[in-house]
Every structure is written in C-alpha cells, then in structure tokens.
Design brief:
Layout: E1 7-9, H1 10-14, H2 18-27, E2 30-35, E3 41-45, H3 46-52, H4 56-59, E4 63-68, H5 69-81, H6 101-104, H7 112-116, H8 120-139, H9 145-170, H10 175-198, H11 207-216, H12 220-244, H13 246-254, H14 256-265, H15 278-281, H16 291-303, H17 323-340, H18 345-353, H19 366-377, E5 385-388, H20 391-395, E6 399-402, H21 403-418, H22 430-443, H23 450-465
Parallel strand pairs: 5-6
Antiparallel strand pairs: 1-4, 2-3, 2-4
Helix pairs in contact: 2-5, 8-9, 8-10, 9-10, 9-11, 9-12, 10-16, 12-16, 12-21, 16-18, 17-18, 18-21, 21-22, 22-23
Bound molecules: fe (ii) ion (2 copies).
Length: about 475
C-alpha cells in the first residue's frame, strides 16, 4: 500500500490571503481534486484550474480541492518572501458555470487514468491484439470496410494512448532501464504502423473514417493525433504516387520561376536567384520515399504530439493558450522518444522539429537551437538546400529542414484549424483553411513550404472529390 500523503484543504491556504493565490499561479502548484460522489482523485495544475474559473474552489459542489502539506508550507514561505507592495488583483469570474477537473481533462479522454495505470506487458498485448484483429480483417474476403475502419480507429487510439502513458512513466527511469521497459511497446507499435500502412491501397481514408474517429474518441488531443497520423499516412502515399509520375514534376519546373523562385530567394540568400531550382528546394531532387523511411516517418506522425499534457490548451488564440507551456510539448516529445525508447532517431526528430517554420519567430523547436550551435562552432556553415529527406544532411546542417517534419507542419496546421472540437473559434472549411494557410503561413511569412503546400492542396482537393 502506498503511504498516504498529508493534505490540507486548498480553501484553508487561500484564506491566508490573496498572495497565496498569486504564488500558486506562479509556481503552478498541483491541486488534488477529489470527487465527493465517486471518490475519484485527479491532480491538476492550479494555474489551469484558475484560468478556467478564478473561484473554482468555491463553485463546484461535486469536487473538493486539496493541496499537499509540504507544498502548502512551501507556498506560505514564498508568500512571506514575496513583494507585498505589489498588489495582486483576482480577475472577475468569467462565467457563472462551475468548472470541474473533468471539463479540463479532455485532452486524452475519460479512460486515460485507467490506461495510465496498466502494466507494460498488458499494454503490448492490447496493441498486438488490435493489430491481429486488423490483419485478420484485411485478409478476409470480401472485405468489410466498416469493420476495418472500426478496428483501425480503435487500434490507433490504443497505440497512441499507451505510448503516451508508457513514455511519461519512463521519464522517471534511467535511459537504459526505460529503453528496456519500452522495447516491447516500440516493436508492437512499429508492427501496427506497417499493418495500417497496407490499408492505404484500399482507399479507405475517407470522410467516413474521420467521422467514426471523432465519434469514437473522446479526447481532443487524441483525436488530433489520430487524424494527423491517418492524414499523414495518406499524404505520404499520395506524394509517392504523384512524384513517380513525371507530369507533376514537369509542371512544378515549368512554373518554378513564376510561382516559386521568389519564395525561396530569402530562404537561400547565398544562392543567385537563377541557381534556385527544385533541386535546391529538395536536396537530391523530388523523389519517392523509400519504404524504410516511410514507416519511420509514419511512426513519427503517430507520436508527434506525445509530449502534450492533457490539461493544456494547444490551439493558438484559444483562452487558456500559453506559448511557454505549449513549447514544452516538443521538448518532452523529443526527449522521451530519443532518450527513453529505441524508436528510430527520425521519430524523435519529427516530434522535436514539427513546429520549426523555417526558423520563423512564430515557430519553435530543437532544430533551430541545433543550427545556431552549429553555426556558432563553424561560422562557415551554410544551408544551400531547403529540405533534406535523409538524416545525414540534417545532422550535418546542409538543409534548413527535415522532410517529414516539414510535411507534418502543414498537416498539423490544417488539422488544427479544421478541427470540429475547437472551443473559441469556428472550425474552418477545407477551402478557408487552405486560403488562410497560403496567406498567413506562406505569403505574409515563410513558415510552411510552398511546393509541399501545393502538393498538399492537390491531395486535399482530390480526397474531397472522392467523398
Ligand atoms: Fe505539436
Ligand atoms: Fe499536432
């Protein structure tokens, strides 16, 4: 039995004065929320609860809020050290409705706590079972598309959630111990990625699939990650088909000087404008993605937001958006995948580089930090290519970006703005989203890649036509 940690009612701490609230926000103190009816306990950051309702400890009849005694004493100490001259004003209550921790724990769905408590061998079994079910359905003749869709959605969800829970647990272990513990999970996940990639030829990546997905998963982050994974898989496959036909590349070449050159001039300032061509945009030219890379990148898409926390708002412009906290998700995703698992390096890089935006200040991530360091150590280092498909030129800093991360930026933005579960802004239609992305992410600022965006826009319109 775990030892009981002594706690105190949060309200008692707050009764000592408003500075107590101020320090709780500054320190993002963890609040223990206990459901009086069911006895369920959840831990939530004070700041998040406060941002949703500035009197949450008074306004919910079902929940009782506590703080650990140690934490309470630490806060009191900080209160006595804090500058009492600086007045702290609690904002007015923004709504009459009470906010419960359940309202806030939407990111990973209601079952997440149960999933987080499952032991590692059981996790692997759940993913393997889902994968076996899917494989059997794929072999079945005639194929039952509805059943395949169900099984696919279920298994993506299970795989995603278990990877999240397992890697977050692994953060407290040494790297070697963690790698051993997550090895089975890595293998079963990679097997599942291979199985789901086979489904691409069956052309079931359609609107019905997305609808099933939204109706079946109850967490907003999980919905986003599943949609991005499936759209990402479908896009990579479309990309491979398109670049294999010479007509697409010929069209891009024919319109390069009129549509594209200007966009790339400032990204590649060391080159004469006339020297900028498709071969400078893609190191080694535009070509199909080899199988091995395809699976590694697909795994990266599946894991890209693994560092997200359930109670944080990740939609820019939404009420509880906090850029500093949001930036953490790429760091945690990268660190946990690279250090705590044996996933291929590409998977970690995709998690760490998927918001770079060609170094634009609106983006963030590890690649810009890495690039800065390399340039500092070697001032002669120049990037005369925009996107590299292979890992080596990325590590050598020959290019400004890594192909799968650049693809993911586009899919990610598109998904965020068309997400039907957005709270504070209406979801955009496909057309509105593409127009907005062209205006804001390409014309105004060079964040996403123009050639990849054009291929993506074609992919989206062809997908929509088939619905
Ligand atoms: Fe992200
Ligand atoms: Fe994302």
């Amino acid at each position: 039995m775990a030892e009981k940690i002594p706690v105190i009612l949060l309200q008692k701490g707050i009764a000592t004065g408003d500075s107590y609230i101020k320090v709780c926000i500054q320190e993002n103190a963890p609040v223990i929320c206990e459901n009086k009816d069911t006895g369920v306990k959840k831990r939530m950051p004070f700041k998040i609860m406060f941002e949703h309702n500035s009197r949450f400890w008074l306004q919910n009849k079902t929940w009782e809020y506590y703080i650990e005694i140690n934490e309470h004493e630490r806060i009191l100490e900080l209160v006595s050290e804090s500058d009492s001259d600086q007045e702290f004003v609690i904002p007015e209550i923004s709504s009459d409705e009470s906010t419960s921790p359940d309202d806030i724990i939407k990111g990973f769905g209601q079952d997440y706590e149960t999933i987080a408590a499952i032991a590692e061998p059981e996790r692997i079994l759940l993913i393997t079972d889902g994968n076996d079910r899917l494989e059997k359905l794929i072999e079945k003749k005639p194929r039952e598309e509805d059943e395949i869709t169900e099984a696919l959605v279920d298994t993506v969800q299970i795989t995603m959630l278990h990877n999240h829970a397992s890697l977050m647990n692994a953060m407290s272990l040494s790297n070697d111990e963690a790698k051993k513990q997550t090895q089975g999970l890595v293998e079963s996940t990679r097997q599942f990625v291979k199985t789901s990639s086979q489904l691409l030829s069956a052309n079931i990546f359609n609107d019905d699939l997305m609808k099933t997905l939204v109706s079946k998963s109850n967490g907003t982050i999980i919905q986003h990650m599943i949609r991005v994974y499936l759209n990402g898989l479908a896009f990579l496959s479309y990309y491979n088909k398109t670049v294999s036909s010479s007509s697409m590349i010929n069209k891009l070449r024919a319109s390069f000087s009129s549509r594209y050159r200007k966009f790339y001039e400032s990204l590649l300032p060391n080159l004469e404008p006339d020297d900028i061509s498709l071969e400078r945009v893609f190191l080694g030219g535009m070509r199909a993605i080899p199988d091995g890379d395809f699976y590694n990148w697909a795994t990266g898409f599946l894991m890209h937001d693994l560092g997200k926390a359930a109670a944080v708002e990740y939609h820019e412009g939404e009420d509880a958006y906090n850029r500093d906290i949001v930036i953490e998700h790429v760091k945690l995703g990268y660190d946990s995948i690279i250090n705590k698992t044996n996933y291929p390096r590409e998977v970690g890089l995709i998690a760490g580089y998927h918001h770079e935006y060609y170094g634009n200040p609106g983006g963030y991530g590890y690649y810009r930090t890495y690039l800065e360091q390399v340039k500092k150590n070697n001032p002669k280092s120049v990037q005369n290519y925009c996107i590299a498909l292979e890992l080596e030129p990325v590590i050598e800093c020959e290019a400004l970006a890594f192909f799968p991360a650049k693809v993911l930026e586009i899919i990610d933005v598109f998904d965020s703005v068309t997400d039907p579960s957005r709270k504070y802004r209406k979801a955009m239609t496909t057309k509105e989203a593409l127009e907005m992305m062209l205006k804001e992410f390409i014309i105004k600022e060079q964040k996403i890649d123009l050639v990849l965006f054009d291929v993506f826009a074609r992919f989206v319109s062809e997908m929509t036509l088939h619905q």
